[in-house]
């Protein structure tokens, strides 16, 4: 299988296994299994019905038809606009109006909202197959996806991701994770984000391996897949938090998770406490990586490298990563303390924001993408994210402080179940550090939490205000929505 993949010019072909398919499993949802040969025949059938379409919306439910729709559209050379099935009416209307898809692909029986129901529709039947040659491969610079950002600072922006970025980035991850055709990835990630769709579906298919989607996240389902041949797990921190608790309560489940070749976490920082709990229960050390919709993956801890909690490792092959100060001057220090904004350059970059040349120009500086993420760099080149410039960089008493390291310190307190850190105006300090805490059974005092942080980090990083909540507001990928805290 590997030899057949390598025989194809993978620099030009996004999914080389479609040209040389075999009967190995490619995709599994529950009892529904599609082989690579089935996938190629399905891709031809879907593509045949998309002749002349330049953009297609995909109603991206966690289902086999969603995967077949995406692969078929990419085979046809159309750009895919994945749509969150839980999206609000206003946001959906903006996305449809902005991207102007030629039609919408959905599973038979899906009930579509009005903005999509007005488009021509094609139902994706997993049983539909077509023999014959594949369409000609689209140009590497052609958009493969238009993925919309969360829209936290305005209407969502459509990120134009070229086929070139996807192919080169998945290959870089393959080298970092020693990812081969023998690997089977299991996950329960949404299929309208880069993480679940591009890494979690196209990644295994490009390698010639397989993906098993469990629908909703369930620790027992993940363990069952690992016991039945799965080798890699993709997840977000909320999933690993639940997995840690379940493994601590069930030794058999912990042993099953311990069989994984690789556990990969992304989309947000995995707290050090959960790293330690998973390692203690399963013997596994979780690998973290760092990426964005506009850049795909920029950094990752290597499978054979130092799996150090709190870091996202060095840049992946082919991607340049630098830290800059407020004036855009590169920071040379690798002392683990000097905070700078991450800028990225490489073949992984997007083409721009659809219909937004102003936003595209603002996001780029001399060919470098300005991520808005703040980080420090350790002496060995490992990058540690400390937060977002807009919400996580706190300027207090003359210091630049990243909210992320304070959050991790707070989570080491036995009385803290969840923690988020923000800044708010202060007449004396400029900004004061505010800790938002979901306590365990007993509420720790404000002074106790301040002393705990000051002991672990430094006195100027202690929270000056503590606010207690029953739960932190989070989006569908498990990230805390900090603007909702202040609202």
UniProtKB/TrEMBL annotation:
Pfam families: AMP-binding, AMP-binding_C. One of its GO terms (molecular function) is medium-chain fatty acid-CoA ligase activity. Residues 20-354 form the AMP-dependent synthetase/ligase domain. GO terms for biological process: fatty acid metabolic process. SUPFAM superfamilies: Acetyl-CoA synthetase-like (SSF56801). Residues 405-479 form the AMP-binding enzyme C-terminal domain. Belongs to the ATP-dependent AMP-binding enzyme family. This is Malonyl-CoA/methylmalonyl-CoA synthetase. It comes from Actinokineospora iranica. The lineage of its organism: Bacteria, Bacillati, Actinomycetota, Actinomycetes, Pseudonocardiales.
């Amino acid at each position: 299988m590997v030899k057949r993949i390598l025989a194809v010019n993978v620099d030009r072909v996004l999914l080389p296994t479609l040209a040389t398919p075999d009967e190995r499993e490619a995709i599994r949802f529950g009892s529904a299994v599609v082989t690579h040969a089935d996938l190629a025949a399905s891709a031809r059938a879907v593509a045949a019905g998309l002749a002349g379409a330049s953009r297609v919306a995909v109603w991206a439910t966690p289902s086999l038809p969603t995967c077949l729709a995406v692969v078929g559209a990419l085979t046809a050379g159309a750009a895919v606009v994945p749509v969150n099935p839980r999206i609000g009416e206003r946001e959906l209307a903006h996305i449809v109006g902005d991207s102007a898809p030629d039609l919408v692909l959905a599973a038979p029986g899906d009930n579509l909202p009005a903005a999509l129901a007005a488009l021509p529709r094609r139902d994706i039947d997993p049983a539909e197959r077509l023999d014959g040659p594949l369409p000609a491969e689209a140009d590497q610079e052609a958009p493969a996806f238009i993925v919309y950002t969360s829209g936290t600072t305005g209407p969502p922006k459509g990120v134009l991701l070229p086929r070139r970025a996807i192919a080169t980035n998945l290959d870089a991850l393959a080298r970092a994770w020693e990812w081969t055709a023998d690997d089977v990835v299991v996950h329960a990630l949404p299929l309208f984000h880069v993480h679940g769709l591009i890494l979690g579906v196209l990644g295994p298919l490009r390698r010639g391996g397989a993906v098993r989607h469990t629908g909703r996240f369930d620790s027992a389902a993940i363990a069952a897949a690992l016991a039945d041949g799965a080798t890699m797990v993709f997840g977000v921190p909320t999933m690993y938090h639940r997995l840690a608790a379940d493994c601590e309560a069930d030794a058999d489940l912990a042993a099953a998770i311990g069989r994984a070749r690789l556990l990969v976490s992304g989309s947000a920082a995995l707290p050090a406490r959960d790293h330690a709990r998973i390692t203690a229960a399963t013997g596994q050390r979780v690998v973290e990586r760092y990426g964005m919709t506009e850049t795909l993956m920029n950094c990752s801890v290597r499978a054979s490298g130092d799996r150090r909690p709190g870091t996202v490792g060095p840049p992946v092959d082919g991607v340049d990563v630098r830290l800059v100060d407020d004036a855009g001057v590169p920071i040379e220090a690798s002392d683990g303390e000097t905070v700078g904004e991450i800028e990225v350059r490489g073949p992984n970059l997007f083409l721009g924001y659809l219909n937004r040349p102003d936003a595209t120009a603002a996001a780029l500086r001399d060919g470098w993408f300005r991520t808005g993420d703040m980080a420090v760099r350790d002496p060995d080149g490992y990058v540690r994210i400390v937060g977002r410039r807009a919400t996580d960089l706190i300027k207090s008493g003359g210091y630049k402080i990243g909210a992320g390291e304070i959050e991790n310190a707070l989570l080491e307190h036995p009385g803290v179940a969840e923690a988020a850190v923000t800044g708010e105006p202060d007449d004396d300090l400029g900004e004061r550090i505010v800790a938002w805490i979901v306590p365990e059974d007993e509420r720790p005092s404000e002074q106790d939490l301040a002393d705990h942080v000051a002991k672990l980090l430094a006195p100027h990083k202690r929270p000056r205000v503590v606010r207690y909540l029953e739960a932190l507001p989070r989006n569908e990928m498990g990230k805390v929505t900090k603007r909702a805290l202040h609202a």
